[in-house]
Amino acid sequence: MQTRPKQPLKLNLHDIHLWLAFPDEIQSPERLSTYQEMMTLEEQVQQQRFHFSKHRHQYLITRALVRTTLSRYANIEPHQWRFSKNAYGRPEIIPQAGVPPLRFNLSHTDGLIICGVVLKQDIGVDVENKERTGAMIEIADRFFSQQEVRDLYALPEKQRRNRFFDYWTLKESYIKARGMGLSLPLEQFSFLMSTNQALRITFDSRLQDDPDKWQFWLLKLTEHHQAAISLCRESQVDYQLKLMVYSG
Known about the structure:
This protein is of the alpha+beta class and 248 residues long. It has six helices and eleven strands.
């Protein structure tokens, strides 16, 4: 099975490629065997820690997605990529000679895995299955900013579930882009959404961040899946997003 294109895929400086993988559709024994061979021993051990076969399969596809996707942009075989983690657990590519300054971020939920790829910049992605159950409004009351909670309750009740997932995916993508996870309090930044203005973010002074550095996307990827992307820009240039469907 070919796992790397003959010519690297072009990724421009102000482009984001968002790759979508549907794990339930990837069942070929030959392909799965190839994916197993790509993983490091550490990854293989981590895969076996999952109790359910569905989650072991999801982990395998996730590792294959990031490895084969990165190899589309560089003359590196998928099994040759090595990763490190920062103090908060965010994975980063260990630099190799001849490899462009790729940055990536992963997210997965039931039925869908996504991988965002960009050059140089901090990026965070999050995807959620909106069919999941849970006390959404109670979560918002506990973790969202006061402004977000007020705006959520100002909506008609039938619209609140969708707005909850707007906030949740955006907030998750932002803290992932910052590379600090839940050490960043979710109530210390607010997303402002309205029909007449672009999506904006505001910060509590304790976060010491600049709203103008950030660009955000909200995406309905399938009937059940919603995603968000947060990108820290080095300039005021707007980045262009391209969706790519993963085919192995």
